[in-house]
Design goal:
Layout: E1 15-19, H1 24-34, E2 38-43, H2 66-71, E3 76-80, H3 85-96, E4 100-103, H4 117-123, E5 128-133, H5 148-155, H6 175-198, E6 202-207, H7 208-215, H8 217-225, E7 247-251, E8 254-259, H9 264-273, H10 277-280, H11 286-291, H12 293-304, H13 309-316, E9 322-325, H14 329-333, H15 336-341, E10 344-349, E11 353-358, H16 382-388, H17 393-401, E12 405-406
Parallel strand pairs: 1-2, 1-4, 2-3, 4-5, 5-6
Antiparallel strand pairs: 3-12, 7-8, 8-9, 10-11
């Protein structure tokens, strides 16, 4: 894997121990690794579920999911049986030397091993301990299952998508996991800054439910201070509080997105360009564009359905509103803006051979993010890390023979 920069990274010299699985935890650890931290991922005999969650049958992948190596880069992996006394002792020794812990295990799991925040701060008072959970740990739902789709449903996010009189439409990606990750990284970096000034560690807590609500802070403000009813569109309007023509419209070979202020002048220009100005005239007021937005969308939908995506974009571009084709993900990955941004990199891995990944979008001219290590195989760095902790070769072999640690 290519490492393009020799400049010391912001988190050089910082060690992170990651008790992580699925998405939000690993991505948080991965981002810290991209900023230069030495991240050590702890993986038990049952392995991270994400390794096999969405498998690919492509030769060379050995049954490993592309999802796993997309969210576990820039980490070393050690295999440890935390139910073994010697395995747990090795992890305690590793944690003693750590600056940061990132964990998204079920509440209470690490506490039983003496590796919860209260346990760790007794022997490592400067630790920055980041816990990612489904719900607030002090609340009544702390032990409830917290997964992206479940949180989308409970938070109201899923209810915002889709058309009136149809089922809600959830996001097509793990949006809440991703946003929760960003909050976690911000919290850890702020805690590091505080420790630099005071020497104090602290417990950083981020939960998916509150993160989901923060994603919808503007919409929630409207509901709490204005109209508590959510009005989904019957046709194509893409947001519960937007007027026409803001939305997705079918073309004869796909779809386009139209975005503009619900201004009578602008919508009139759009209607004229599409040859439906006479039909649109009854709706050319700000009040009608909001309150009769479905009727407006229906008028625009008819001529657009007869055009190709390319023809619609060519005809409507530059007319005081915005129009773009609705790309598939493969099309988006080939978009010139994406290629120019250098966010897609090629990696070499034992798990997948040569493969491509999307890297962190952060740009820093003095300390660029690191892209130096592919996702680890199970226990790939067990021996390496134990040597760093001072274990002899004989002791390491004995621990492996007894199943306290392992590598595959």
């Amino acid at each position: 894997m290519e490492n393009r920069h020799e400049t010391p990274a912001p988190l050089d010299g910082i060690r992170v121990v990651a008790f992580t699985h699925f998405a939000a935890g690993p991505v948080t650890a991965q981002y810290l690794g991209a900023l230069g931290a030495d991240v050590v991922k702890i993986e038990g005999p049952n392995q991270d579920t994400e390794r096999v969650s969405v498998r690919m049958s492509k030769p060379g992948y050995d049954g490993c999911s592309p999802y796993f190596f997309a969210v576990n880069r820039n980490q070393r992996g050690i295999g440890v049986n935390l139910k073994s006394q010697e395995g747990c002792e090795a992890v305690h020794k590793l944690v003693e030397q750590a600056d940061i812990i990132v964990e998204n295990f079920r509440p209470g799991v690490l506490d039983k091993l003496g590796l919860g925040y209260e346990g760790v701060k007794k022997f490592n008072p400067g630790i920055i301990y980041c816990t990612i959970s489904g719900y607030d740990l002090m609340g009544p739902s702390r032990d409830d299952p917290g997964q992206d789709l479940l949180i989308e449903a409970l938070s109201g996010l899923a209810s915002m998508g889709g058309w009136e009189d149809t089922l809600p439409v959830p996001a097509g990606t793990y949006a809440i996991d991703s946003y929760t990750t960003m909050n976690a990284v911000v919290g850890v970096l702020a805690a590091l800054r505080h420790r630099d000034r005071t020497g104090e560690g602290q417990w950083v807590r981020v939960d998916m439910m509150c993160s989901a609500l923060h994603m919808m802070a503007a919409e929630a403000s409207y509901v709490m201070n204005g109209d508590p009813a959510i009005h989904r569109s019957k046709n194509n309007i893409a947001h519960v509080h937007q007027g026409a023509p803001y939305g997705i419209y079918k073309t004869c070979d796909g779809a386009v997105a139209l975005s503009s202020q619900p201004s009578p002048e602008v919508v009139g220009i759009l209607a004229e360009e599409l040859g439906v100005l006479d039909e649109m005239r009854p709706y050319l007021s700000e009040k009608a564009l909001r309150e009769q937005r479905d009727e407006v969308a229906a008028v625009l939908a008819r001529p657009l359905s007869k055009l190709t995506k390319e023809a619609a974009v060519q005809r409507l571009t530059g007319k005081r509103y915005w129009v773009v084709p609705v790309n598939s993900l493969p099309e988006a990955l080939e978009h010139p803006a994406v290629k120019a941004a250098d966010v897609i990199r090629t990696s070499q891995s034992k798990l997948a051979g040569t493969h491509r990944v999307v890297v962190e979008p952060l740009k820093m001219d003095k300390t660029p993010i690191r892209f130096s290590r592919p996702a680890p195989d199970v226990g790939e760095h067990t021996v390496e890390v134990l040597r760093e902790l001072g274990y002899s070769e004989e002791k390491i072999q004995k621990m492996m023979d007894e199943g306290a640690v392992f590598t595959l």
